[in-house]
Design brief:
seven-stranded antiparallel beta sheet; D-amino Acid Aminotransferase, Chain A, domain 1; homodimer; five-stranded antiparallel beta sheet; alpha+beta; about 750 residues; elongated; Dna Ligase, domain 1; 28 helices; Creatine Kinase, Chain A, domain 2
Chain lengths: ~750, ~750
């Protein structure tokens, strides 16, 4: 079959060039002095028994990050970014991830720790490997690139009048064969293990640079000399099975071919029943210059390379594959600053790649990545291996460079601990929840990014989560109860809770008629059915009729019904109740600065705004204090300007309202709030039949116990989908990880190992 | 204490004049020939063991409708209207409710059926009553008017520095004492039992008209001559208890005083512990001219009368109460056309009432009701009793009048069977659900009428329902899954269900770039997150770019994300799944008429629109077909006008879209749809984790079984809060009572007796 013609004849170019991708990235945990970390795999990243994303390979210290299959390289990339954030933030303070494929400073062979897991069979397999290859070799890390066709493509195939499974097997085989034939090109360009630490090879390779020690004969290969045939799936499976039978392989998974056919399950035989599902390409070195070990540009180049392996007419024979393996070994051993001995073949192939990209209509970034490669053929110092050598020499040593880079990558993950990189466009609460889910090893599928819609799976239990805490654990009606403030109040009042008095209006005229009854009272005007505090006006002093009318106009913009409630004196606290417990109590203070006897208000604001928790437009847990008209007016009322110097300890407010979104401070008071109020919030949640809610109580004295005769609180409202990020990173007090509590509610049985 | 001064000094006028109200109304079930119905209480109105609203009193045939306590007379009135609708629509075809207090044609004393309930004690009590009074007297029916103060009033009292329970007891006692003293005024005005059928008294009273047989000595009174003292709650309780002890009362409830003090429980002694909660006023005759037996104007007059009983200085002594009872008896015995012998006292009282209304700032309708009463004192023929006599004479007989009125009232309840009168402003589905709940004897509290928010209670189980089927049985997240069409499709596709192909766009430009890929296809353009079919455009033929752009503009008005899906050929059906079962399948046909060879399109439309199910603006299960521009254009495309005469059997469509709201027909196909599709809809509901949903499937051939290889359907969407009324009253086929299925889901244990 001619693939190119087949694709073109059936107009499959678009779906053919999509693809499904995954990356597995290994890296050694390393101490600050560059030595292999001999500590245990962090407990906080969940149990390796089920963790889909964060695993260990041969050694307890060999972290392995595994992205889920994704439908674009961008997706693949962001998953890898996110997993690095999770991994980095769960490392011990004095550990980091080694950025090279070749190991850090290894201890005595005996001291190198094999994985410490419950499954004895897993340990046994590693012990056998250690025996066979030596532990050192097993410590070499790398990148595996998994590729399959997009579901759209297989669906289209299935609609054609052909045996589509056979067709897919054919494509996967051709892909693997040609990849093995031409993989040397990748090693030329992206080989990145030109040096290693003497502890790896007793210093044997010192002073001699090659493109890839890992792809060289002393690298990571099977010990047997026979080849696995890729002539058919049948021959592939039978060869592997017979190697195991004959004892050349301990288990099937020991087969280290640089293109492994993968099915649904782990056993090779499954390929015969269900067909090939994807191919695992294993020859890639970690790129030390990228915090992820592999750039998105590299992925893109590899993708096009794979498409080209299908697009060209050649379908390599087993002998041609042998040649390819040989060329790869030779390339790996070349001096990084010398031209490729296969330059001609390389340039031909690169031109084929450009041709393929054009015929498939791929975007220009693909072609740019090939142009880069062409340049690297002309100037070998542009190859990754050459650059690594230069950087090692510049930094003084392999260890110095690796330590510097690895620690810097870890530091990047700490810069904005409230964000999960890769998913920064999602709401902060969702990012925190995602982080926690990845940490616990819950499978995550972003069903709709804009809509903050996640699918979580663990041990076959599927849970959908929207906006961080809208789940199956709450009922449909509980949402609507909270959305309707009148209904909430009725239900709570019926159960004897203290609510503010008030009336409900359907028109401004209606509400204005009511003015005589409220004209001497402090009141709050608010839309009946909004959340998030929108459209609310507070009159701590009785309103003039004009002000009352304005407040009504604002509220009626949000809703067709408006409540006019009595204003209750006291401080408002947000009680966050999840799964029956008040897990956090927060006080929100209006934007303010405290003087030091020296600086002006403007300077104090500037200084306060430098805090890493303060950002703009909900991209940080706190907002920067503005210096606008409202703040200026507020200062004027206090006979101040932005230029006033405040006395030491003097606190000046810049806003009336306590919203975090206008620069307010979040103060966690969970531990100082009298327990009785927490119980009341929990009871209210129960009465409302809700598992996640933010209950706003006004409590004049939080240290005084609430009693039936002196309740000491008034309930203002119960909020659905209450914000969680503002509790996690607070201006003052202890941060509360409510996203984790939500996950505990959904998956009460998940245990950290 | 001077009540008037107390109220005024504490500014309580507003809350004092509010009140809490209830009505109990008895009426005999009657056969078309006017004879007492000897059939059983209808099973379809729930079990009398728990029914809060529809009961029987002494006799199996004596229906008793009981409104819940309401905070306004309007509320009270609408509940009574609704309960009448429920009662009427559950009667046998040849039965109706007798509109008079005095009975219909009674059979032999022995044949009159005592209630037939499970509780033997209840039956035993009635047997004792029958023994003591004779069954005939027990068949007299009447109105009980329950009054209490508004919760606002009692709350304000509790905030004053007084013993508020004592104060309330004082008020209730004063109210009762003065009511008994002056009740004759009510009997004068509203006495409405001037005649009775000879079967009641062997014809003894024939030819002699009085104001109220029921209030006369041969009416409904206790047999003992001693009085119950209202000097204090203590004396009231002790007197009743001693009458029971001495055997003058069978049980406490036999006390028939026209003002009975009521506490929380049934035992009089409870009054001492918890105080008086309300007073039950019992001297009112059924008003045969009102379908409810009591007009809202009467209620208003009584309310003001009660307020006046509190407002006046007098606090009647037991002797004065005796005088009042005497006067009531004398008034009851007066000739309806003669002036009252207590006219002077009456007019004084009525003027006090006007004074009271003014001082309390009641609205003018209260004063008008008093002016009516003044007129009735001047012209006795304006009294209810006199009007009844005149109507009886005009109609020929008491029986003729009673039959005519009773049957007409029943008929009114059948005119719009899809509405529940009293609640017509609510959504139709909510009205149907309310009807079913009242029928089953589920307690209903309308928490928010505009928001369609109900609280249901049965046997301590509280359920909140919004919009007829948003309940606690569905999860918060299931709503959002259905609200997001992309997410719905992903989840269903993951489970292998057939969905239309499609793409999602975030901008018009984005979607226009996609035009080349769809330009040869039939497509549907729709907003991602709307329900109820809003903003959708269908192109059964490939769209021109301009039309595509317009459709995008329409869809983007509704949502920031828009789906462009392939259009699937076939007929769309709505599968209504509730609680795991497909309970209804509906086909919606665009507005159409079928010719008869004689009439024009316009005439056919007019005729079709006369069907009682067709109305306007969602106030009926089907909408009237419009004769607007769209219909005119649609006819033009078919070379027709409104004036075209259609051939016999010729069907002409007046709309493209099949919405019921634009005059479409609803056709129930539940029984003809192949079971396999119903199972698929049920499975989809399960996959989406939802208990109530309307799943739209396109099925080209509904008689052909769906199989894994030939599914025979495509799922278009799953709707949250699917309409229920359109299934209940259909253009063709069998109506499906889905509201009842929702209640069965919420309360699976409710058994009809």
């Amino acid at each position: 079959m001619n693939v190119k013609n087949f694709i073109k004849e059936n107009n499959l170019e678009h779906v053919f060039s999509k693809g499904s991708f995954g990356i597995e990235k290994e890296g050694l945990r390393t101490k600050l002095d560059g030595k292999l970390a001999l500590t245990k795999h962090p407990k906080t990243v969940g149990s390796r028994q089920h963790h889909p994303y964060i695993q260990t390979d041969f050694s307890e210290s060999q972290l392995e990050l595994v992205t889920p299959p994704t439908l674009s390289l961008k997706e693949q990339h962001r998953w890898l970014v996110a997993l690095h954030d999770v991994a980095h933030r769960n490392l011990l303070e004095d550990e980091f991830i080694w950025p090279f494929s070749m190991p850090n400073i290894l201890p005595d062979e005996d001291t190198i720790p094999i994985i410490d897991v419950e499954d004895k069979k897993e340990i046994h397999y590693r012990e056998k490997l250690a025996e066979k290859y030596g532990k050192r070799k097993q410590m070499i890390s790398g990148i595996h690139f998994n590729f399959s066709f997009a579901p759209d493509f297989t669906e289209k195939l299935s609609q054609l009048n052909i045996d589509h499974r056979e067709k897919l097997d054919f494509l996967f085989l051709k892909l693997s064969r040609n990849f093995i034939r031409y993989q040397w090109l990748i090693t030329y360009l992206y080989g990145a293990s030109p040096v290693c630490h003497p502890s790896f090879d007793n210093g044997e390779s010192q002073g001699v640079y090659t493109r890839s020690i890992r792809n060289s004969p002393i690298g990571y290969h099977n010990t047997f000399s026979d080849r696995v045939s890729y002539a058919s799936v049948q021959s592939y499976v039978e060869d592997i099975e017979s190697f195991v039978k004959e004892g050349q392989l301990i288990e099937e998974r020991e087969y280290y071919g640089s293109a492994r056919l993968r099915g649904k399950g782990k056993a090779a035989r499954g390929l015969l029943n269900e067909g090939v599902k994807y191919v695992e390409f294993r020859s890639f070195d970690n790129n030390p210059f990228d915090s992820l070990g592999f750039t998105i540009e590299q992925s893109q180049f590899v993708h096009l390379f794979l498409l080209t392996m299908l697009w060209i007419e050649q379908n390599s024979t087993d002998d041609e594959m042998d040649l390819g393996m040989k060329k790869n070994e030779l390339t790996a051993g070349e001096n990084p600053f010398e031209p490729s001995q296969f330059k001609e073949e390389g340039l031909l192939l690169l031109n084929e790649m450009i041709e393929t990209a054009k015929e498939l209509g791929l975007d220009s970034s693909y072609i740019r990545s090939v142009e880069e490669a062409i340049a690297a053929f002309e100037e070998p110092e542009r190859t990754l291996a050459a650059q690594v050598v230069k950087a090692v020499e510049k930094e003084g040593s392999y260890m110095a460079l690796g330590s510097k880079l690895g620690q810097a990558y870890k530091q990047e993950s700490y810069e904005k601990p409230f964000l999960l990189r890769g998913f920064e466009q999602m709401e902060m609460s969702t990012q925190l929840l995602l982080f926690d889910a990845l940490q616990l090893g819950i499978e995550v599928d972003v069903l709709d990014e804009q809509d903050q819609f996640l699918k979580l799976t663990h041990d076959k239990q599927v849970e959908y989560v929207k906006n961080g805490n809208m789940t199956s654990k709450d009922t449909y009606i509980s949402h609507w109860i909270m959305a309707n403030k009148t209904v909430t109040k009725k239900i709570l009042a019926d159960e004897g809770y203290t609510i503010p008095g008030g009336e409900e209006f359907v028109s401004i005229e209606n509400a204005l008629d009511h003015y005589p009854l409220i004209k001497d009272k402090a009141i709050v005007v608010k839309p009946k059915s909004t959340n998030y505090g929108i459209g609310i006006s507070i009159f701590k002093n009785p309103p003039k009729e004009e002000g009352y009318r304005e407040a009504l106009e604002i509220a009626f913009k949000e809703d067709s019904e408006v409540l006019v409630e009595e204003f209750i004196e006291g401080t408002e606290y947000r009680f966050f109740v999840v799964n029956g417990r008040t897990e956090a109590v927060l006080l929100r203070e209006p934007a303010n600065v405290v003087g030091d006897g020296e600086r002006t208000v403007a300077e104090l604001i500037k200084a306060k705004n430098t805090h890493p928790y303060r950002g703009e437009k909900h991209r940080a847990p706190l907002e920067k204090i503005q210096m606008g008209q409202i703040e200026s007016l507020m200062l004027k009322e206090q006979n101040r300007t932005f230029e006033s110097v405040l006395e030491k300890g003097e606190k000046v407010f810049l806003r009336e309202n306590s919203n975090i979104s206008t620069g307010g401070d979040s103060v966690d008071v969970t531990d100082s709030m009298h327990e009785s109020y927490k119980r009341i919030a929990e009871e209210m949640a129960e009465v409302l039949g809700v598992n996640v809610t933010g209950i706003d109580l006004i409590v004049p004295d939080m240290t005084k116990e609430s009693t039936p005769t002196e309740p000491g609180y008034t309930v203002i409202e119960a909020n659905f989908n209450p914000a969680m990020h503002m509790h996690a990173y607070v201006h003052k007090g202890k941060g509360r990880r409510l996203t984790r509590k939500v996950l505990d509610m959904l998956y009460p049985t998940i245990q950290l190992s």
